[in-house]
Prior knowledge:
The protein is mostly beta strands. 12% of the residues lie in helices and 34% in strands. It has helices at 2-8, 23-39, 77-84, 115-123, 128-133, 135-138, and strands at residues 102-104, 140-142, 149-154, 161-166, 171-175, 183-187, 194-199, 205-210, 214-219, 224-230, 235-240, 247-252, 257-261, 266-271, 278-283, 289-294, 306-310, 315-318, 330-333, 339-344, 348-353, 366-367, 378-380, 386-389, 395-400, 406-411, 417-422, 430-434, 439-442.
Amino acid sequence: MDLLCKAYSNDSDDEEEPTPVPETHRKQQSEYRNLALALRPSKRSKSDYPYYPVAPSNYSHSDLRVEAPVPGRYVSKRERALLGSPPPVSNHDHLGPPVVTQSVMGSISDSDLPHDISSLLRQKTKGHAQLSQMSERLSCALRGHTKAVNAVHWSPSHAHLLASAGMDHTICIWNVWSRGQKKSRVFNFHNEAVKDVKWSQQGLFVLSCGYDCSSKLIDVEKGIETQTFKEDQVVGVVEFHPDNSNLFLSGGSKGLLRLYDIRTGKTVHEYLRGLGPILDVEFAKNGKQFISSTDVSQSNISENSIIVWDISREVPLSNQVYGEAYTCPCIRSHPLDPYFVAQSNGNYIAIFSSNPPFKLDKYKRYESHGVSGFPIKCNFSLDGEKLVSGSSEGSIYFYNSRSTELVQKIKAYEQACIDVVFHPTLPNVFASCSWGGDVSVFG
């Protein structure tokens, strides 16, 4: 112990860092250091605590792993400096530290809702008569985006919340019927326009994607970006797996389709076929297949415009589903029956069987609305009885899903109506958005 005391007898908090010692004393100092390390009460190996008499040129604080000092052990100035320094920033794309760049505008709690609306949401589909009497109160205009809005989506678990994705680089979270501020959150995690946004089926999380070549998982309640999934393409669409909210699909401008696992932040499957830009993806009702829509206008070949994929085997079950020379910006599966629909730039919605060989119904389709090159979307009601579509002229079209008959038309906007989605619990309540930056709710 006398040697140990001598080794530390000249150290002081007020003294300058030690300078290199002559060659004749280096061997003795090395022996003192080794003895001190051997007596230190720590279970970690020597390599976990590198010690340099003189800091080399490539040394940085992030090179050391720091833990709390053990009581009774001497802590050098260098270790004290490390303990007081901020933790190093992770460079991992998927599982890095949360990023906070949120703007809290209002509450996301349903406690701010009027009592009658809050009761109606809890009753779900039991209050049809009451719902019809409150239609005017359920309708509202939500203003906040400064450019076109590409998508809107209701939260399945918190039915008073609506998410919207805009060309102004923002994601807005709306507490739709709040008596206070309706725009509850504004997230600026993307550096470019946001193309799509989807709520997770479990908890207050949204998944978004955009022109900055990334998908992002956001904790809405905490206002933090929890994970980023970087790609080498503009990501145009994301979709959670219907049976497992830890999995999601993404599709982008280079025709690449990827299935990610949020738990690991890694790609589970890749679906490669040399496709054009992916316009939309939709899981089949059984969760074992998905349908992709691709822009094949550059190839002059109509095959591959709609492909049905086997998820686990990464192979297409059919790539000749749609033979028309039109792109399809939207694919939707019927919630109950075995068929799906595709919004066509031929100004109609085509119908396909969900069973092999996935035939096109040549005798029925939904037509009356215009698409005209806009990314117009369509959606089924929760019971599957209605199909609603936006349009290039700013109107909203309602069809009987079984007969394909046009039931109602509402003039909503001066510019194109891009997306329309039914409320997850309230019949006849739906949200929409426009190319002019409008977000609306109709009751």
